[in-house]
Every structure is written in C-alpha cells, then in structure tokens.
Amino acid sequence: MKPPVVFLLLATAMAAVADPLPSWNETPTKKAIVDFVEKVTTKGSPDYVVPAERIATFDNDGCLWSEQPMYFQAFYIFDRIKALAPEHPEWKDKEPFASVLKDDVKGALSGGEKALLEMAMATHAGLTDEEFRKVVGDWLATARHPKTGMPYDKMVFQPMLELLAYLRAEGFKTFIVSGGGIDFLRVFAEDTYGIPPEQVVGSSIGAKYELRDGKPVLVKIPDSLFIDDKEGKPVGIHQHIGRRPIFAAGNSDGDFQMLEWTTAGEGPRFGLLVHHTDAEREFAYDRDSHVGKLSRGLDEGPDRGWTIASMKRDWKTIYPATE
Amino acid sequence: MKPPVVFLLLATAMAAVADPLPSWNETPTKKAIVDFVEKVTTKGSPDYVVPAERIATFDNDGCLWSEQPMYFQAFYIFDRIKALAPEHPEWKDKEPFASVLKDDVKGALSGGEKALLEMAMATHAGLTDEEFRKVVGDWLATARHPKTGMPYDKMVFQPMLELLAYLRAEGFKTFIVSGGGIDFLRVFAEDTYGIPPEQVVGSSIGAKYELRDGKPVLVKIPDSLFIDDKEGKPVGIHQHIGRRPIFAAGNSDGDFQMLEWTTAGEGPRFGLLVHHTDAEREFAYDRDSHVGKLSRGLDEGPDRGWTIASMKRDWKTIYPATE
Fold it and tell me: Would you state the pLDDT for residue B121?
C-alpha cells in the first residue's frame, strides 16, 4: 500500500469517529450530548462512569417515533376492534367501541385514558404471547399512517437511531421506557431500534401460564395493570432495570419523573427532551397537545440542566432515507 | 521468542479453552452441557442459535447457592425482625413475629408461605431502594451461616459459577429467575455471579415514587405482590425478558414450569436440575424436604430430556476455594 491510501483511509476512519451523529446539526444540543458521552467514557476523567452503570433510557412515542395524530398503538387498537367486531356484537351499542366502529376517533377518545385502557385490555388480553406477536407483526406489515402513508415502524427518528447506536458503541446499555404496551413494543424494538425484548419497559397487563393440549402457553390476562407513565416510569425502571439511568430521553411531561429521577442521581447525568417544533417535516406541538403534552418540561427543564432538542433547529433529517 | 515458548503458551491456552468447567467431573452431565453449548454456538450447525436468542435462566436458592436449613433470605428476615422489634412492641404477642423473637424457627415457619410472606412484607416495605440496599449489604457483610460459619454469599456453587462464566463466554446472556426477592438478589448478584441487576427476575412487591424534601425516592410498598415461583417463573420470564430461554437451570419443583416452558420451545433446548446428593460436602435432600423439594422433576425430568446433575457424582468441589 502506498502512503496516500493509508492517509485517506485514516482520514475517513477519523471522520467516522468524529461524527457519530451525522443527522444532528452542529448546534449546542449535539455538542452537549457528545461532551457528556466523552466525559463519562474517558478513563481518568473525574466524570468517568464504569460501563455497567451506563444505563440510558428512552421514551418511545414522540421520542423514537412519531405520535401524531394519535399514539400509533391506538391505531392498532382501533384496527383490532374492527377486526374483532364480528365476535363482539355487543360493541355496536357500547362505548367507546361503538365510536370506533363508526370511525369516530374523537368520540372513541372522549372517554380519556380510562376508555383507551378499556380498549387496550379488550384487544390485548386473551391472546397467547405468540399469537399477540403475530397479530401485531401482521398489522405493522400492512398498516399505513393516515397522513404520511408510511408504515408506522418507518416513522422513526433517524437522529435518535444514531444516538442509540452512538451510546451503545460507547458502552451504554439502551432501554425503552414507554407508556406504550411492553409486548407491543417488543414486536419491533429489536429490528427497529436494536433494543432486545429484555431491555424494553412498558405498560403491561398480567399473564397466565397454562397447558393447552399438553403444550405450555402464556396468555395475556386483563389484570395486574401497570401504567409506565409519569411516576410509573421510575417505578418501571426500578422493577426492570434495578438501577438508576445516567441518561434519559423523552419528549413529554409523561417523561418528567423519569428525567427527574435520572438527573437527581450523583455524578454526571443527562436529561434530554425532544421538542416537536417542525410542522413542515413532522408535527409541531407542545403545551396544548392531547398527546405528548410538553409544558412543565419546557418550564423547568432548563433550570434542571436538561437539554431541549428542537427538531427544527437540531435535526438535519427526521425519518431514515427510504431505499 | 523461541518456538517452544510459543507452543507452551498455545498448549496452555488450548487447555483453558478445552476445559471451561474444571470443577465438574468428567461425567455424562458435563459432556451433555458442553455438547449443547458447542452445537448452538457452531456456525453452520443445524442447531446454531444466534447470540440474541441465547438466553439462559438460573434459579438461585439451591441452584447457585445453598438453601439449607432454610432459605438464606429467611435468615435475613428473622434478623431484621429482631432489629426492628423495639419499634414494634406489638410483635411480642403476634405470630409469626413472636416465634421469631423467641428464636423458635419452627414456630415462625409453621404458618407456611403465608407467614413467610407476611414477614417479608413487614421487613422489606417502607424502605427506599437505597436504604434497602444498604441494610441487606450490611447484613451480608456480617451474618454467618449457622452450620458452616461462612458468609452466605460465599456459599455459592463453584461449578455453577463456572457454568455461568462459560455460557457468557459463549455469547449467552445469563439471568437469575428466583422465588427470592428481586431487590434482595440484586444487592449481591453482580459481585457474586456477574449478573447485573437488569438481569435479575424475582418475587417482588410494589414501589412508589415520591419526593422527600424535594429529593425523589423510590419506596417499597406492601402491594402488587408477585411470586416468581412455579407457574410464576414463566410469567416472570415473559414480563422481564420477553422471550423464551433456550437453557434453564433449577433444583426444585418450583423450577418445574420454568424448565417445562424452556424445553417446550422449538430447536435445541437444555433443562438442568441440580440434585442435592452430597450430605458430606453440602446437604442431601429431595422429595421430603421442606425447602427445595424435588420430586416431580426427578420423576418426569429424564423423560423430558432434562439433565440431572448429582452434586456428589458430578461436582469436584462445592464452594469456591477461600483465599
């Protein structure tokens, strides 16, 4: 090999190392992230953190993928209610199911969280874990977002995919900590985000172990409800991970306590809030949104040392390039 | 370097590779384990399993450490009841606490699982996660086993430590799936077994997130009880890990369903039961024991293709050598 080739290769390699976040603009947000990662991974640095403690948690809806005009799992639930309607003639006269069957989204959601939970239970319970995986997988393969026409699992944020990969390359273990359903998330988290099922924390219902014709199955049952949102997020982190993250990312006030818990620990900590500011390339919403409301985080985040990423300002691209 | 040195180093390295389980005797048990690991890790083998699916789960009491004359966590609970007694004058007249305070172990345990749970709740709830870690850590540092005089966390099985390390070296992710308390286990699992908190599944009570003088804490609360035993083990695996293990090890009928669930999956599977057959070096018990009862596993295990390790026959040593 002639020296120039070596230099060229070296320069390319260095450029790759130098920019682990190519879809992030060169703003203070990107610098804050990279500075944090470098200081906790540099041996001898006063802020060095051993790899075992490099736990990073990410909200999903609105943080790793879009969440407008409503949570994507709600689209799944609505589609599932329609598919199951023939087996449930009583739903025609029973809210919130009746509204769903009339394509009245507003009516279906007017019952608030309670109604959504009731629908989630009705459509998630009763399936074995294998059946549930297949039903959700089939849905993801065929369903399309009403505005973009894209598959839901392609509406993930390229800059966040890079951030996940960057943290993992630097010895972090990345977790999802979402208000969404843990088993729903697990269907696509590994392929989409590189996050294995055992690193997914989410809302959950119970499960029952039983034998069917001598074959053991796990069946989802409508009890033991756990809501992994707000104060539930540190609780979910405690139960599943068992130690405090040093890095947490979210986008709504449902993530407030996760960031509070994370950044209240000793030593270096990073709290990141994704602010949806880009009506043109994605959606723009915060204090008044019915999903992903972000108000307290905007008010208190900066004083708490949290970094607020503006999608419009900080992100070069939103979704991954399609092949 | 002269060739002989290289050969010598190579030979040493090969010997190390050739015997990943030096504390296991050269019996069919050891051969079955090694054969399994080799076939699932050999690329091109029809039984090859990708690393992400190499999930191995281990019971703790009686599988990774001893459990006689009673579960070690019960010793903790008894010691804790005595320490807390001055704050609970009512315990003097209330069973099972009264028996504990009179050092009447039999009386304390005569209420069965319900009494043990009541004592576990009373001694575990109310502490923050940090307080609980400190109390258990202090106890482990000072408490000694009544028969051996050893610290409890030194009464771990050297052959099983080697098995954990061997599996991890071969790309497995190792988990504890125990009827013991998840937070109790997490205090020592990382140092003792190399298993991080996020890979510990166990029985649990609830937790509450709250602010104390502006500082967020997680407090253990006596609700949301989950018993990670028998049918609860596949459920705990499902909730925490989200996929079926390909390797499971236990020692009692409390592990039956975990092994059943594990070995009912498609492809290569391994079920291991540790049989306590060594009264001289450890303890000998099975069908009639009040802890770690093993009966159905002995009857049905062999027909199900499970491997039964006899401590007396298969293990060269029991506990790690002390320095």
Answer: 87
Residue A13: pLDDT band (50, 70, 90) is low
Q: At what angle do helices B129-142 and B72-84 cross, to 10 degrees?
A: 110
CA angle (A307, A310, A312) in 5-degree steps? 160
Distance of CA A24 to the CA centre of its chain: 19
Cβ-based neighbours of B74, under 8 Å, separated by 6 or more: B109, B116
At residue A178, the pLDDT reads 97
Tokens 């030096």 correspond to: B22
**Model confidence pLDDT, tens digit, residues A161-210:** 999 999 999 999 999 999 999 999 999 999 999 999 999 999 999 999 99
Predicted local distance difference test score (pLDDT) of residue B115: 87
Nearest to A270 by CA among A229, A312, A306, A242: A306
Distance between CA atoms of residues B312 and B63, nearest Å: 14
Report the Cα–Cα distance between both ends of chain A, in Å, rounded: 34
Domain locations in chain A?
23-67+156-314
**Burial profile A36-71: b = 16 or more Cβ within 10 angstroms, e = fewer:** bbeebbeeeeeeebeeebbbbbbbbbbbbbbbbebb
CATH architecture of B20-69+156-314: 3-Layer(aba) Sandwich (3.40)
Round to whole Å and give the CA distance between B237 and B57: 9
Out of A52, A218, A264, closest to residue B215 by CB:
A264
Confidence band for B125, pLDDT divided at 50, 70 and 90: confident
Lookup result for tokens 């959950």: A204
The Cα–Cα gap between A111 and A119 comes to 11
Give the Cα separation of B179 and B63 in Å (integer): 12
| Residue A255 sits at the chain B interface (C-beta within 8 Å) | no
Nearest residue to A259 (alpha-carbon basis) of A247, A268, A276: A247
**Residue B14: which pLDDT band, with cuts at 50, 70 and 90?**
low
The CATH superfamily holding the domain A23-67+156-314 is HAD superfamily/HAD-like (3.40.50.1000)
pTM greater than 0.90: yes
> What is residue A3's predicted lDDT score, i.e. its pLDDT?
47
Mean pLDDT of chain A: 94
Residue B222: exposure state from Cβ atoms within 10 A (0-12, 13-18, ≥19):
middle
Mean pLDDT value across residues A237-266: 98
- Tokens 């992030």 locate to A24
Interface check for A68 against chain B (CB to CB < 8 A): the answer is no
Structure tokens at A40: 């906790």
The tens digit of pLDDT for each residue in A114-125 reads 888 889 988 988
ipTM of the complex: 0.93
Q: Which A-chain residues 155-184 have CB contacts (< 8 A) with chain B?
A: 173, 175, 182-183
Query: Which pair of tokens denotes residue A1?
Result: 């090999």
Decide if B218 and A235 are in contact by the 8 Å CB cutoff: yes
Closest partner residue to A207 (CB to CB) among B199, B224, B235 is: B235
Residue with tokens 């001598």: A214
| Packing angle of the helix pair A112-124, A72-84 (nearest 10 deg) | 60
Report the alpha-carbon distance of residue B284 to residue B41 in Å, rounded. Answer: 35
